Structure formats: C-alpha cells, structure tokens
Amino acid sequence: MATRPLATEVDSARGWLTVAAAFVSMAVVFGVAYSFGAFFAPMAAEFGTGSGATSIVFSFTAFCWFALGSVSGRAVDRFGPRPVLLVGAAALAAGLVTTSWVAHLWVGYLTYGLGVGIAVACGYVPMVAVVGGWFDRRRGVALAVAVAGIGVGTLAGAPVAAALIDAYGWRRTNVIFAIGGTLLLVACAVVARRPPEPQGDSPLPVRALVRTPAFRSLYASTLLASLALFVPFVFLPAFAVEAGVDPVPAATIVGVIGVASVVGRLAIGALADRIGRIRTYQVSYATLAVSFLAWLAAASVGRAWTLPLLLVFAIVLGIGYGGWIALQPTVVAELFGLRGLGGLVGLIYTAGGIGALLGPPLAGLVIDTTGGYRWSVAGAMLCGVGAFLALLPLNRGEFHRSR
C-alpha cells in the first residue's frame, strides 16, 4: 500500500493532477453510459423489443453503478484510486466487447449492465472522494471541475455514438468505445494519487448514520430525483425522432444536457458562496423538477416547436442536474465530515440505483400502454418535485443535534 502524502500537501499541485484524472475518468464512463439513448432504437429494432424491455439495459446499468458505489467508495478509502480505476477499465472492456456479441437482449442486461455499471462505480464515486480529500479551501472548485467531466462525456458520448452507429452499427461501436475508454481509464490510474489522511472525528456507524434526519433527507431526495433523471437519458432521443428530428441531432439533445451541466457545475460555486451550499443544493433540485414542464409542452405542441422546447428542457435540466452532482459530495462532507467520505457518498447513491432501476422501465411501460410520452414525463416531473420537498427540512444543525 502506498504511503499517504502529508497533510500539508492539501490544496497542492498534486491534488490538481488527481482532479484532471477524475475529470477524464468521469468523462469516459459517463460518456459511454449516457450514450445509450443512441443505441436504444437500433437495439430495440434488432431484438424486436418494446420501450420497457429495452430500457432495462440502461436501468440495470445505472442500478449497478449506484449500488456498487458503496463498495468502490469503501475500496478507495482503503486502497487508493489506482487499483479501483484499473478494475473499472477491465470491466468496461469486458462488458462492451461481450455486449457486441450478444444474440439475446436479456444477455445484454448482464454484459452491458455489469461491465459499464462497474466501470462507472469505479470511475465516479471513488474519484469524487479522492478529490474531496485533496482539498480544503478550494474543495468546492476542485469538485466542480472534476464532475464537469460528466457533462463533457455526456456532450460527446451520445452524438459520437450516433455517428459511429450510423457508420458501423451498434455492435462495432461498442468495441470502439471499449478500446478507447479502457486506454483512457488506465492513463487515469497512472496519474491519480491517494489523498492525505483526513482529520476529524471517526465516521458514525452505518446503523446510527441511517437514523439521522439529514441522511434520510438526502437518501429520499436522491431516490426521487433519480426516478426522474434517467427517463430523458433513455427516451429523449427516441421522442425527438418520433417528433420529426433527425437521429444525430436528436442524440445531440442529450449532449446539450451535458453542456448545461458543465455550466451549472462550474457556476454553482458563486451561488453556493452567496446563499450557502445546502440552500443552493435545494435550488438545484427545484430547477431539475421545473425543467420537465418544457418537455411536457413539447409533447403537446406542433412539430415546429418540438426542437426548441426540447433544447430548453435540456438546458434547464442540465443546470439543475449539474448543481445536484457538483454539490452533493460537498454537502455530505459539510454534514458528516471527510472521514469515510467515499463509503458514505456511495451509501447515499444506492438510492440513485433504486431510482435508476425503476424509473426508465416504468416510464417505458407507460409509453407502451398509452402510446405517448405525456404521462411518463408528468410522472418524472412529480418525482422531481418530491425530491425538492424531501430536502426542505435539511440544514446543517439538524445532523449535529441528531448525533
């Protein structure tokens, strides 16, 4: 096991190298995962499956990365980022290559879901925890830059996948993503460094932690927001194509979510400094909920307005989503401290796994049953409103009183 850097190296250049590695690792794993909307239609056509059955591929993937985040988070606390990232690289390669061979969709649930799910679990939560441990004064900025990689990956992944699928088919595109993604994750493992030993009290036992009002608020809000968030990543490109938008521009709408999330993550620090991190975190959830009004309007108007309304939806959703992802590790650290941060963030993210597992298949079932998207979009919006309401009782003093 490598020797930890000294505590005096916090906020140093070594930390920023790890930020760069975190940025790239998140861009890679989320670029692959969030490109699934481009694979959705060709896979459904080849296997002859409906919206609900095909969406399970993505839902199971997201469930895996959220559920396994608690495992990878504890692993990085113990072993550091390098071995965790190497496991992620191996899983990504194996999952995508084997998915390119599948003859039945249910096999793809396992190959893609486990391969990409493990890769995201290794490239996201552990790196958030590592970056948080490298910084004190500039933690908010460092985390915002690191998680901006998610937005960049989202921006690039979906349109690149759509173009490659058009040229080579969805099976060969998986192989191309496997090769490129694996090489980049290995490079990240070489660069990433373990942070100094954090100071402060030992973390609460899990049994005591889950009884705190602050943890319950964070868990409930993450669950409800995840039920809403992953619906557009699966169904938005298909909705746009059915409304008359060409496939590549339709996939690019998901990329717009990524661009807006980058802006949201990088700009959110100024608002957090002004009104507080927790309150800004709450505002991010409210923004996410309100965004679905634009998609609901796009499902109800003529085709001339569809693309502009979907772009509005993608921008507003991306800003809210970006604020949520950028601030959650900082809010968790503010409420519970830095010790054991990786395991704690991963534990909260299991709620996201449940939401991701249930949200898209339920939305797909409603789409198949009703023959349209309106009720699914309205349901996602209500889940977003519920997530915001679940956060309203949250404040910093609440946790300390519960201890």
From TrEMBL:
PROSITE patterns, per the entry: MFS
Annotated TM spans: 16-41, 53-72, 84-103, 109-134, 141-163, 175-193, 214-236, 248-271, 283-301, 307-327, 373-394
Source species, domain of life: Bacteria
Classification via InterPro entries: MFS (IPR011701), MFS_dom (IPR020846), MFS_trans_sf (IPR036259), Proton-linked_MCT (IPR050327)
Topology within the bilayer: Multi-pass membrane protein
Keyword hit for Membrane: yes
Places the protein is found: Cell membrane
Alphabetically ordered keywords of this record: Membrane, Transmembrane, Transmembrane helix
A Pfam family recorded for this sequence: MFS_1
Domain Major facilitator superfamily (MFS) profile: 17-396
Signal peptide bounds: none
Protein name (database record): MFS transporter
